């Protein structure tokens, strides 16, 4: 039988060791988080090395500050002309920040102009482990009531689907709340059924997941998805005259985009930045009865375009702080798949 003195000594030792036992597990977790943070900081340093120096001239009177987010690479996408401005001269864009993405809501069209999302290998692992979640669509409560246009594109009548721009499955990586925010109307665009559900846009989304999922590929991607309101067959003219009056409107005022796009950027193993841009045309017109008619070819084979093609058609600079000499190379190629 253990003596009273020995029992008290063992008890005292356990009491003294208790803090060490409770700290051990959190310390291991902290070390992992610190290692991941260091990796992310390295990407940030790589990005900073390629960014052009900031000058006062880059800031307009409308935005004398800079919005920062891990979902941006080389700065938040920047408007380059006045085509998106309202009658009062306001920018006409509302930026909403979520945990899993950042979206710029185009008030005139009631749909996103762009949605930015950073995607990592650890995000992929969390997404794979997450449960499948329902798709219940709602107006975005963070936008004023006047910008709510309902939740229906009347797909059976119009041929249009609610296309996630930050992919639904990817939003699961941040949990139920993120998935719910991903199904707000501020994250979807009117896409033709043949492009969205099992078409080229969906196939590209799957390819993006595969690109980061392979061990020999990159650890982190920046994905920008959005809408194009510029019909190349009947251009709207100079930016100052772009009132978008000829854009087809459906249901409660949604503007039907002439195309949607996706831009994917990453750092190569050598530390240089690269990007690919993909454009998905959905030509359409209103017939004499006011019915929306699409003229989408059965086979579309050319999707990869230079980033600057999309910049010209949207009036957006997607990597505004990327050094000019680097941008001239990265944004002018159309090399095809990853």
Q: How would you describe what is shown here?
A:
With 338 residues, the chain is an alpha+beta fold. It folds into two domains: 50 residues; 269 residues, Extracellular Endonuclease, Chain A (3-Layer(aba) Sandwich), CATH 3.40.570. The protein is 31% helix and 22% strand. A hairpin with a 5-residue loop joins strand 12 and strand 13. It is globular, with a radius of gyration of 24 Å.
Task: Name the strands of the widest sheet in spatial order.
Answer: 2-3-4-7-10-11-14
Question: Can you tell me the CATH topology of the largest domain?
Answer: Extracellular Endonuclease, Chain A
CATH architectural category of the largest domain: 3-Layer(aba) Sandwich
Percentage of residues assigned to helices: 25-40%
- Helix and strand succession? HEEEEHHEHHEHHEEEEEEEEHEH
CATH superfamily of the largest domain: Extracellular Endonuclease, subunit A
Number of domains: 2
CATH class of the largest domain: Alpha Beta
């Amino acid at each position: 039988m253990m003596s009273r003195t020995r029992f008290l000594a063992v008890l005292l030792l356990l009491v003294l060791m208790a803090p060490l036992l409770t700290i051990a597990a959190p310390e291991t977790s902290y070390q992992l988080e610190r290692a991941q943070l260091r990796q992310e900081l390295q990407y940030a340093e790589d990005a900073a090395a390629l960014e052009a120096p900031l000058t006062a001239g880059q800031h307009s009177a409308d935005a004398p500050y800079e919005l920062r987010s891990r979902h941006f690479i080389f700065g938040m996408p920047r408007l380059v002309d006045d085509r998106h401005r309202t009658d009062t001269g306001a920018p006409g864009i509302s930026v909403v920040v979520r945990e899993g993405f950042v979206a710029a809501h185009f008030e005139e069209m009631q749909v996103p102009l762009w949605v930015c999302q950073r995607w990592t290998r650890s995000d992929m692992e969390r997404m794979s482990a997450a449960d499948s979640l329902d798709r219940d669509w709602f107006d975005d409560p963070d936008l004023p009531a006047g910008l709510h246009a309902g939740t229906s594109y009347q797909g059976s009548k119009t041929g249009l689907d609610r296309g996630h721009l930050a992919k639904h499955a990817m939003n699961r990586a941040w949990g139920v709340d993120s998935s719910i925010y991903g199904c707000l109307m501020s994250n979807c665009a009117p896409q033709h059924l043949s492009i969205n559900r099992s078409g080229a846009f969906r196939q590209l989304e799957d390819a993006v997941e595969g690109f980061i999922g392979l061990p020999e590929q990159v650890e982190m991607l920046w994905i920008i998805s959005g809408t194009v309101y510029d019909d190349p067959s009947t251009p709207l003219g100079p930016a100052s005259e772009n009132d978008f009056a000829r854009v087809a409107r459906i249901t409660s005022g949604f503007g039907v985009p002439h195309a949607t796009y996706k831009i994917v950027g990453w750092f190569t193993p050598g530390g240089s930045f690269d990007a690919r841009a993909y454009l998905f045309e959905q030509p359409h017109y209103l017939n004499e009865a006011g019915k929306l008619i699409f003229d989408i070819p059965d086979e579309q084979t050319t999707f990869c375009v230079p980033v600057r093609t999309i910049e010209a058609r949207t009036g957006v600079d997607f990597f505004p702080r990327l050094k000019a000499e680097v941008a001239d190379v990265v944004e002018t190629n159309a090399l095809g798949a990853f």
